[in-house]
């Protein structure tokens, strides 16, 4: 009766039949930890999706309110594309890389100048 459960946990038949009984408990504990981590990740994903939905609603209500109180020529617009945080992260990574390259170039220029002076 335990053998099919052990197989579902990823335990090999050799481990089940020839291994120590405590090994099955280790597999059970590992499965529990995996489930806990998956639940936590799922919960974080749901929280993020709810937050993002709120952000879209905020943007939509803000657009409606701004347009209802603005002059005809100054209409607010709802974003035409989804809000993408990936682009922001990529931009931040690119700017960090640019900063590091600039710092490296400055440091290299300084060391080259010091090396030239030390050769004289």
Summarize the structure.
By secondary structure, the chain is mainly alpha-helical.
Task: Give the SSE layout.
Elements: H1 2-8, H2 13-18, H3 21-69, H4 85-119
SS-derived structural category: mainly alpha
Sequence stretches where pLDDT stays below 50 over 5 or more residues: none
Main sheet specs: none
Order of helices and strands: HHHH
Give the count of structural domains: 2
Radius of gyration based on Cα positions: 29 Å
- The count of DSSP E runs of length 2 or more, i.e. the number of strands, is 0
Mean pLDDT: 84
Distance between the termini: 85 Å
Share of helix, binned: over 70%
Shape: flat
Portion in strands: under 5%
Number of contiguous helices: 4
Keywords:
mainly alpha, flat
Characterization of the model:
The protein has 120 residues and is mainly alpha-helical. It folds into two domains: 1-82; 84-120. 81% of the residues lie in helices and 0% in strands. It is built from four helices and no strands. It has helices spanning 2-8, 13-18, 21-69, 85-119. The radius of gyration is 29 Å and the shape is flat. The N and C termini lie far apart (85 Å). The mean pLDDT is 84.
């Amino acid at each position: 009766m335990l053998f099919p459960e052990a197989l579902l946990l990823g335990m090999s038949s050799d481990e089940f039949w020839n291994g120590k009984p405590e090994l099955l408990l280790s597999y059970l504990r590992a499965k529990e930890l995996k489930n806990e981590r998956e639940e936590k990740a799922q919960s974080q994903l749901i929280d993020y999706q709810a937050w993002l939905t709120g952000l879209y609603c905020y943007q939509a209500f803000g657009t409606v309110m701004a347009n209802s109180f603005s002059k005809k020529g100054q209409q607010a617009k709802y974003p035409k594309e989804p809000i993408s945080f990936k682009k922001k992260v990529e931009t931040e990574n690119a700017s960090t890389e640019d900063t590091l390259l600039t710092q490296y170039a400055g440091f290299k220029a300084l060391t080259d100048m010091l090396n030239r002076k030390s050769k004289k």
